[in-house]
Amino acid sequence: MIQGYFVPMTAFAAGAPCWADVMLPDLEAGKRFYGELFGWTFSAGSAEHGGYTQAYRDGRAAAGLMPKPDGRLPTAWTIYFATPDAARTSAKILEAGGRIVSEAVPVGDLGTMLVATDPTGAVFSVWQAGTHPGFEVTGEPGAYVRTGLSTRDPQGADAFYGAVFGFESVADSPASDERFRPWRLAGQKEEIGGRALMGDRVPAEMPPHFTVCFLVAAMDDAVRTATRLGGRVTAEPITTPGGPFAVLTDNQGAAFGVLSPK
Fold first, then answer.
1. Spatial contact of 225 and 207, defined as CB atoms under 8 Å apart
2. Domains of the chain by range and CATH?
3. What's the pLDDT tens digit per position in 186-211?
4. Quick one: which H or E segment has residue 112?
5. Helix, strand counts (H, E) of the chain
6. Whole-model pTM over 0.85
7. Residue 51 class from Cβ within 10 Å (0-12 exposed, 13-18 middle, 19+ buried)?
8. Closest among 249, 8, 26 to 134, alpha carbons compared
């Protein structure tokens, strides 16, 4: 585990990032890409759930892959936040100025999910666990480690996610400044992610968005592997308090973050 980042839990606290999945045009190509990059193995796709496939790191659930049912949908990673009551969270999202994209619906006995956006349009999902609690492995190479929101309204983001999930903006963190603030859950010391200001260099057409980040053993190796497999570097590695961080794009256009230990 990387100190100061996501702590794996068997029962996720309300508001904690608990799952991530990616929607892809070509599921098999995605399995080849992420299988080699992160060392994942995969379940057989579930016909009941549109071919949804679970990825495993050393036999533990690490993420999900799903074939796009509609070509108009984005090729993108999605972060899920835990809730004990999806309907109540839906009401909070609306009260705080967000929008519900897909109402809360049961996914068999696995749980209940909804898809929403914050007031500026950043998409996220909410998960009320049933038999599927979420991540079984985090904070290890090949597994989820944190998420970050890129936004043009950082104060608005703090207010929205604070009202909906109880996120606290960590102004006293060594990593914090006006452009970036880590987030933690109320009453907890560990950071669960953060938000960053989208500066003038970011194209105006780029919408606010969450970046799902995975831990890798070595940044150089991850970049070489991703590019060899047809991916590309979207944001070159930079130094962060947690270690080198970069944004990559897979061979189908889905962007994600990678972080390597200091």
1. no
2. 17-129 (3.10.180.10), 144-259 (3.10.180.10)
3. 888 888 899 999 987 788 888 999 99
4. strand 111-117
5. 4, 16
6. yes
7. middle
8. 8
* Cα–Cα distance, 147 to 199 (Å, whole number): 19
- Length of the chain as a residue count: 262
Task: Render pLDDT for 2-48 as a digit per residue (tens, 0 to 9).
Answer: 333 333 344 799 999 999 999 999 999 999 999 999 999 999 867 77
* CB of 227 closer than 8 Å to CB of 247: no
Q: Are 33 and 229 in contact (CB under 8 A)?
A: yes
- Please state, in angstroms and as integers, the Cα–Cα distance from residue 146 to each residue in 68, 137, 140, 182, following that order: 25, 12, 11, 11
The token pair that represents 262 in the structure block: 């200091």
Map tokens 């990593």 to a residue: 175
Alpha-carbon gap, residue 190 to 182, rounded angstroms: 10
**Which residues partner with 252 through β-bridges?**
none
Single-letter amino acid code for the residue at 79: I
Q: Which residue has the tokens 């999930």?
A: 165
Place of tokens 């349009």: 121
Cα 212 to Cα 149: distance, rounded to the nearest angstrom: 9
Beta bridge partners of 127: 82, 113
